[in-house]
Every structure is written in C-alpha cells, then in structure tokens.
Amino acid sequence: MVTKESHLNEFEFLHNSYESSEDKPSLPEVFLVEDDLIFGKTLKKFIQKKLGLEVSYHSDPGAAIAQINERSSSEQFILITDISFDDGGADGLLLIDLLKEKGHKFIPIVMTGFASIETAIAATKKGVFHYLTKPFELDVLTDLIMKAAISKLGYTEKDFKVETPKVTIPKKSTGIERSFKIEAPNEEDIFCGMIGRSAKMKQVFERIEKVASSGSTVFINGPSGTGKELIASAIHSLSQRVDNPMVSVNCGAIPGELLESELFGHEKGAFTGAISSRKGRFELANKGSIFLDEIGDMPLLLQVKLLRVLQGRVIERVGSTTTTPVDVRIITATHRDLEKHVEDGNFREDLYYRLNVIPIKVPALCERREDIPLLISYFLSRFVSADGRNSIEFDDESLELLLAYDWPGNVRELENLMERLVILRGGSVIRPSDLPVKFLERAPMHLNSYDSLISLPEAGIDLKMALSNIEDSLILQALSKTAGNKNQASKLLSMNRTTLIEKMKKKQIEFQQ
Ligand SMILES: Nc1ncnc2c1ncn2[C@@H]1O[C@H](COP(=O)(O)OP(=O)(O)OP(=O)(O)O)[C@@H](O)[C@H]1O
Q: GO molecular function, one example (predicted)?
C-alpha cells in the first residue's frame, strides 16, 4: 500500500531543494534513457530545441549510470527514463534505485508503452515526478520538465527560453520557403478595402485602377469567394460615377421569369400581380453602375434582351411598347468558365464578346498563398473584440495547415473560418484538432522536418527496423491526435481506414487513451 506519507518522504529524499538560487547551475541537466533510438533521438532534439537544455541521451541504462557516476552527486538533475527495455535485462525503475543507492539527487520522470497498475504503483513508490504513458505529445514532456525544474529545483519560467521548434514549409507543398507568420497588412497591402500582397493580386489592383475611369464594360471571372463583388465596387468607387448608385443583381438567385422585370421594370398590368408600374434595376442605376453577378446563369431568352441594351443603351419595361434610354456602366461577373458555356450552347457568343471588353481574372486563394497570413490577420482584427478577450493564436502546426490547405471556398471560406474560431475558441491557442478535419486531410508531408529530428547514428542504423518504428510512431501519433478515431487517423496518414486497421492488427498496435 502506498500511503501519502511514504510518498512524501520519498519526494523529500529526492527533491531537497537548493538552499539559494545562486547555488543552482544556470539550467538543469537532463539525462534521457530510452532504448528506442529513433524515439530517444527525437525526444533529445525536441527538448533541446524547445527548452534550450542540454540533454545527455543514452539508449542503455548502464551507460547512463556510468556517466552520472562521473559527475558530482550533489548536483540535482532530471532523469527521463523508459521503464521496460527491449533486451529485458534492464528496467527504468531499477535504474532509479541504483542511482539513489549511489546518493544521486534527481527528479525522475518515467515513460512506458505498457501501462499497468502495478508499474504505476511501483513508480509512485519510487517518488517519480510523473508517469507518462506512450504515446504522448512531445509538448507534454517538455511542460513536465519545466514544471519539475520550477517546483523542485527552484528555477523560474524566465530561466527557460521556450521556443516552439520552427517548422519550415517545404517548397514542394506550398511554394513558399519560409516560416509562416501572421502579419497585419500594411498600407500597401490594402486597395479599396481589399487585401493583397501577391503579384497576382497587385496585377488585379493595377487593372482596376486603369479601367475604372474608362466607363467600359468589365467582365470579372474567378472562383467563388475570391472577391469579385469587392472588385466591382472598387471599379465603381474609383470611377466618375461614384456619386451615383451602384446596383447589384445576382442573376443566379432570381428565378428566370422574375429576372426580366427585376432588370428592366414593368408597366401596370403587364402580368398578374403587376398592380403598378415599377422601375427596373437598370433605371435605378442610371448614371451609375450595374453589377450583374453570376451572369453565366442568365437564361438564354434574357441574354438576347441584355444584348439589345448593350447595343442600343435603351431598355424596354415588361408590358411597354416604348423604350427608355439608360446611361449605365455594366460590370458582370461569374465563377463559371463562360467560354465553355458558349461552346456548350448555354451562353450567346455575341453577348460574351460584348461583355468581355475588359476582362479581369481573379486568382483562387491557393494561387496566392502569401496573402493568407495577411487575410487571417485582417479578419481576426474584424472579429476579435476591442478588449482582445476573444483573440486567438495559432500553434505552428495549425498555421502550417492553414497555409497548405486548398481553400476551395477561397477568401469567403477563410473569413467564415476565422469568425467561427473566434466565436467557438476565442481566448485560446488553435491547434490542428480545432480545425475542420478536411484541413488535416490536406496536410503536407514534411520530408525535411525529419532531418532535424533524426540523424544517422555514428554506428549506422537498421533501416528496415527504423522505418517500421517510424511507421508505428506516426500511426500512434495520428490515433492520439484524433482521440483514437481510426477514420480521422487514416485521413491524417493518407491511407484507407481498412489499410490502417490491417496495419495495426499486423503490427499489434493498440491505442489506449
Ligand atoms: N482580397 C480581399 N480582401 C478582403 N476581403 C476579401 C477579399 N476578397 C474577398 N473578400 C471577402 O470575402 C467574401 C467573399 O467575397 P465576394 O462576395 O466579393 O466574392 P465573390 O467572388 O463575388 O463570390 P461569389 O462568386 O460566390 O459571388 C466577402 O466577405 C469579401 O469581403
């Protein structure tokens, strides 16, 4: 039976703190003992990079004891050790006993892949600071090391230079070779309420500036959510027509039979329900601009009527026999491939050429990824309250996922996601698990990140075994990240769910939370 008292005595024996802060070395020493070479090296690199601590790593407990015995037994250190070693001849708890016998003072943290009540009790009896069950997030271990150093060795948080290991976006996956940083747009990145620093958006801005004053018909083409309506507004606001109205009509949202009277107006009695005559949008936009969104969805019959307006600059109300002159600049937009629409016979070729006088092509967001950090910052500044209470931050991994994602819904999708995260996760750090699963599906492969974590040991390596260990580790990490959900984990690993299950069975991998 472990009593609270015996537990405390053990702790006191192990953790008699330094008399004064001057006595302690500048940073705590860490000894790591783990027989899985790849995991051990990964841990060593991660702890060193994140906390700036020197880590002495040994795959063999005997070698660890030899090194520890060489140093002065009065200096306390942190020991991180596996419990069971593959050759069966050593045991992490025995290592703790042997070091204690030699009079060493240290704070033990133990790790095990096979959690059992018996070993947990045995570890507690030995006064371990924490008992970690594999797999665990590497950050959990570094947090524990800091906690141990602060609470047992008298260090303060300031003694550590905590640095989250930087992840560099590989060129292949995103086309950008630099660390991803959220950055507020500066003056040059903002054009008429639009954010853009990429060369592609700068070209769009230049074209808007050039065409705005001309009065010509403009055709804006680009995927949904790329800002076509914003571009139309910019053209209008930079033109001489700015003091007159800009009227927008979504041709795809109004039923075909209503669209004609919506655009051109109607006379009293023109159809059932036409109790009075009414001006259409063209007349309302007189001396200003009309923005015909989703022009590709306009019915063929109406296309003929629009062509007549373009040719004669006059409109004819439904039910009228006379024409009314209109002075309107026409700006149209569609997310469709209008040329293909013409080829398929769904759009009149003559109208297409009339509308396409000045084309503006808007790039999808995935073609201008350098704008993503600016847009994130811009939308956060819009959604986060003035006191910053619901502000959010992103960890490196989630930032990377945001940059690598394809954004099929473009800027609108990014805007909606930021709004949702601020509402649901305001005040916290966003991690990959806070993002919709589809972001994880498209995560890039960090081939080069392995270079910084695993280096070829002097004595060489059993490649087959090493790869198999990496596979195990990644499968377990995917399961851990998705709380054991095999469906989501398989997506993270870009494999079928059934393949994952078969692999787990074959390799006898079991996941316990
Ligand atoms: N460059 C940008 N800077 C800031 N906000 C943008 C930018 N581009 C788009 N947005 C915002 O994204 C949302 C979608 O933009 P908009 O409605 O103009 O897209 P669209 O291309 O017209 O979409 P659809 O084809 O679906 O009509 C809007 O809220 C808009 O303010």
A: sequence-specific DNA binding
Residue finishing a domain among 331, 362, 393: 362
Distance 123 CA to ligand 1 centre (A): 58
Pocket of ligand 1 contains residue 415 by CB under 6 Å: yes
pLDDT digits (tens, 9 = 90+) for 89-141: 568 888 998 999 888 999 999 988 766 666 777 777 778 888 887 767 778 88
pLDDT of 372 reads: 94
From ligand 1's centre to the CA of 228, what distance in Å? Answer: 6
Would you give the DSSP letter of residue 104? -
User: CB count, 10 Å around CB of 344?
Assistant: 9
DSSP secondary structure letters along 374-407: HHHHHHHHHHS-TT-TT--EE-HHHHHHHHHS--
**Residue that is written with structure tokens 């039923």 in the block:** 255
pTM: 0.58
Residue 11 carries which side chain, given as an amino acid letter? F
Phi, psi of 158 (to 5 degrees): -65, -20
- Residue whose Cα lies nearest atom 13 of ligand 1: it is 412
Name the residue at shortest CA distance from atom 24 of ligand 1: 224
| CATH number, domain with residue 390 | 1.10.8.60
The pLDDT score that the predictor gives to residue 115 is 62
Nearest to 447 by CA among 175, 164, 172: 172
Q: How far is the CA of 109 from the centre of ligand 1 (A)?
A: 52
Q: Which domain holds residue 25?
A: 4-159
**Measured from the CB, is residue 229 less than 6 Å from ligand 1?**
yes
Token digits of residue 2: 């472990």
- Does residue 230 line the site of ligand 1, with CB under 6 A? yes
Q: Name the residue at shortest CA distance from atom 16 of ligand 1.
A: 227
ipTM of the complex: 0.98
Same domain, yes or no: 329 and 431: no
Mean pLDDT value across the chain? 83
Residue with CA nearest ligand 1 atom 12: 412
CA-nearest residue for atom 4, ligand 1, is: 194
Q: Are 243 and 343 contained in the same domain? A: yes
pLDDT: which is higher, 462 or 101: 101
| 3-class state of residue 369 by DSSP | helix
- The verdict on residue 124 lying in a domain is yes
Residues 347 and 387 in one domain: no
Q: Are 259 and 388 in contact (CB under 8 A)?
A: no
Q: Which residues contact 408 (CB under 8 A, 6 or more apart)?
A: 223
